[in-house]
Amino acid sequence: MKSFKVIDLKIIQEQNFIVPEVLDGVIINLEEGEEPWIIEIVTSSHLSSVLTKLKDQQLDMMVTITRPTNTPAKFSATLMDIHDKEDKTSVIFKGAIVTHGPNYAENLLAYLVEKGYEGESLIKEFNVRMESKEDFEKEEE
Q: How far apart are CA 23 and CA 78, in angstroms?
């Protein structure tokens, strides 16, 4: 079992993010099963009602661990539990890391060019999709 400090967490909702302020957080790799990761964050309670609506739902998330300069990893996780304590909320997720092939950036760029993006719009769309690590191949179906 390995654990790491959670620095940042973003929940992907359509083309937007829900970004709870991470006051404290830990991610634990149980190293077994189909959903081997447990993620717990402590955030301010102002997002509690929004997060409560997401309970038991499968969510895509971007999680940055250890240092703010690390590249976020994409997770598919279920919001398992929420505990409100005074002015803070503890949120627990369980899920799996989503892996992309080693050529994700190149494949995404080729896909966007094929879709007709160019110039500034290509750069903007590429950056947005790189941040969310959206699975662009699904769109082709």
A: 20
pLDDT of 111-120, one tens digit each?
A: 889 889 999 9
Q: Would you say the C-alpha torsion 127, 131, 136, 137 has a positive or negative sign?
A: positive
Pick the CATH number of 2-97 from 2.60.40.3080, 2.30.110.10, 3.30.420.10, 3.10.20.30: 2.30.110.10
The domain limits of the chain are 2-97, 104-140
